[in-house]
């Protein structure tokens, strides 16, 4: 029963090809991922710069310089320092539910624009910050921006793309996230060399560049046909559909969107409706996938790679450089997932990625144990650094082929129109909440759980891989407004789908 290798989907495929206008629109929209990625990459590097620490977090700086911490594992354990990184995620958590309403009522473009603009203001405040308060205020604005763009961009991409290429085009978002992280890592590597101590200002202030790209880009984009129909602009929707599909006859797909929209209109309150039994599969999957994505432990590497590597004995430059290397691997492996996602499907990538991450976490935990033991008092054994780095790189590659892109793709493609925007809001909130929790607790967890932390994440990877195996059906090639058929065909989720959800409505023609 859990054999879900193929979609089992017997519904329609609509005419159309992948056109240059859809590619351009998706590339521009994906740039929304740049701001998210830039921030992920920049915070880790900045929080390991001495000039930044001594200005805003003098206690951490002293602890580190005097080497007064009794354990290597606890060198950087400061709640205020982690709050700097994770405050953004709290703000994004709250703003993504507001974004859900804006996206539904005023369109996907509007949310992207607002997100870009708020992020821009936050970047400027951070670049000129003179105290911790300004720093945190700036980060809250960045967070609001990320909440808006992460809510609207994946949804925009999934709606614009033809079903057969939805995976590829949607992962454009994650590709931009990884490019943002890499650029940030490179910038940090450069600004760390500025001896006058203002390098961190440049790192934080330059976030304005990706913010400008998505702010201006969003003004130039076409709106999605689904959102236009949702807001009663049917003629415009048809014109855009003809343009992006590259065929004159878009009637079947247009009719499908209109039908989905009529159903959506009958539902007034998407937030309360999402709790109905027939949406249970989507609700559970779209809440658990972002939670699991964070429980892979990826942001331990993304936020704290320089700090972790410094902890295990790399010099500051070596650790920033290593962050650059993992950044390059992250981008490269995301490209691999783009090539595979619509051919192999989502499930094989999830499963293989999970196995790869598990093996690497076990290996890194063992190597760090060998180096520092349980007390953390050991000294650095240089020859262990290379294998640690090797396994970290393979781990990042496994994540970037699987949970990285799919953690955003799958939730954005499984909701029916009537609850899509609210559903995506839940996904972003869940992702941000879990990122916040891990960002906020990681340095303390490292201090208390020591090398065991890597085993903690490894156990979660086993749990999430089993979850995919049994509960997440294949969604490749299924048109977005036809997704209900996937649940009704699934060995477990079909119990939530009543006959009247399928028979008697528009799905009944397609041999379920
Ligand atoms: C995740 C981020 C992570 C990034 C790494 C994204 O999909 O949501 O939390 O830092 O991938 O590439």
From TrEMBL:
The keyword Thylakoid does not apply. It is a multi-pass membrane protein. Residues 25-476 form the Major facilitator superfamily (MFS) profile domain. Its main location: membrane. The keyword Kinase does not apply. It comes from the Eukaryota. It is found in: Membrane. InterPro entries: MFS_dom, MFS_STP/MST-like_plant, MFS_sugar_transport-like, MFS_trans_sf, STP/PLT_plant, Sugar/inositol_transpt, Sugar_transporter_CS. Keywords: Membrane, Sugar transport, Symport, Transmembrane, Transmembrane helix, Transport. One of its GO terms (cellular component) is membrane. One of its GO terms (molecular function) is monosaccharide transmembrane transporter activity. The chain crosses the membrane at residues 80-100, 112-130, 169-187, 199-221, 283-304, 316-342, 349-372, 384-410, 422-446, 452-472. PANTHER family: SOLUTE CARRIER FAMILY 2, FACILITATED GLUCOSE TRANSPORTER, SUGAR TRANSPORT PROTEIN MST5. Belongs to the major facilitator superfamily. Sugar transporter (TC 2.A.1.1) family. This is Sugar transport protein 1. It comes from Rhynchospora pubera. The lineage of its organism: Eukaryota, Viridiplantae, Streptophyta, Embryophyta, Tracheophyta.
């Amino acid at each position: 029963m859990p054999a879900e290798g193929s979609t089992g989907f017997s519904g329609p495929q609509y005419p159309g090809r992948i056109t240059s206008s859809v590619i351009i629109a998706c590339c521009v929209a994906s740039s929304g991922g740049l701001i998210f990625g830039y921030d992920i990459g920049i915070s880790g590097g900045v929080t390991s710069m001495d000039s930044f620490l001594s200005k805003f977090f003098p206690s951490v700086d002293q602890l580190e310089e005097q080497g007064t911490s009794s354990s290597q594992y606890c060198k950087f354990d400061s709640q205020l320092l982690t709050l700097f990184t994770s405050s953004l995620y709290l703000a994004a958590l709250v703003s993504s539910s507001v974004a859900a309403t804006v996206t539904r009522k005023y369109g996907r473009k509007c949310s992207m624009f607002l997100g870009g603009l708020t992020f821009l203001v936050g970047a400027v405040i951070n670049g000129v910050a003179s105290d911790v308060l300004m720093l945190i205020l700036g980060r809250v604005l960045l967070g609001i921006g990320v909440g808006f763009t992460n809510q609207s961009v994946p949804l925009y991409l999934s709606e614009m793309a033809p079903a057969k290429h939805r995976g590829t085009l949607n992962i454009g978002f994650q590709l931009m996230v990884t490019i943002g992280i890499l650029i940030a890592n490179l910038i940090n590597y450069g600004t760390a060399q500025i001896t006058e101590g203002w390098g961190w200002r440049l790192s934080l202030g330059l976030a304005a560049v990706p913010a400008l790209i998505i702010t201006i880009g969003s003004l130039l984009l076409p709106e999605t046909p689904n959102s236009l129909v949702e807001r009663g602009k049917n003629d415009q929707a048809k014109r855009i559909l003809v343009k992006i599909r590259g065929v004159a006859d878009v009637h079947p797909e247009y009719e499908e969107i209109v039908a989905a929209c009529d159903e959506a209109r009958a539902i007034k309150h998407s937030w309360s409706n999402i709790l109905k039994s027939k949406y249970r599969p989507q609700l559970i999957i779209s809440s658990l996938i972002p939670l699991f994505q964070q429980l892979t432990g990826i942001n331990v590497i993304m936020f704290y790679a320089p700090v972790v590597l410094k902890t295990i004995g790399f010099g500051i430059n070596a650790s920033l450089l290593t962050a650059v290397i993992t950044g390059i691997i992250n981008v490269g492996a995301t490209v691999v997932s783009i090539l595979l996602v619509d051919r192999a499907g989502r499930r094989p990538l999830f499963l293989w990625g999970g196995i790869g991450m598990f093996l690497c976490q076990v290996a890194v935990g063992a190597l760090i144990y060998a180096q520092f033991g349980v007390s953390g008092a050991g000294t650095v054994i240089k020859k262990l650094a290379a294998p640690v780095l090797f396994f970290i790189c393979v781990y990042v590659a496994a994540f970037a082929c699987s949970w990285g892109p799919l953690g955003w793709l799958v939730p954005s493609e499984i909701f029916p129109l009537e609850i899509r925007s609210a559903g995506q809001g839940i996904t972003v909130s869940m992702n941000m909440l879990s990122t916040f929790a891990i960002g906020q607790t990681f340095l303390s967890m490292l201090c208390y759980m020591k090398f065991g932390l890597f085993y903690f994440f490894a156990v979660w990877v086993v749990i999430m891989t089993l979850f995919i195996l049994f509960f997440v059906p294949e969604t490749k090639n299924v048109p977005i407004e036809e997704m209900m058929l996937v649940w009704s065909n699934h060995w477990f989720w079909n119990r939530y789908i009543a006959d009247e959800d399928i028979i008697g409505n528009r799905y009944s023609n397609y041999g379920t």
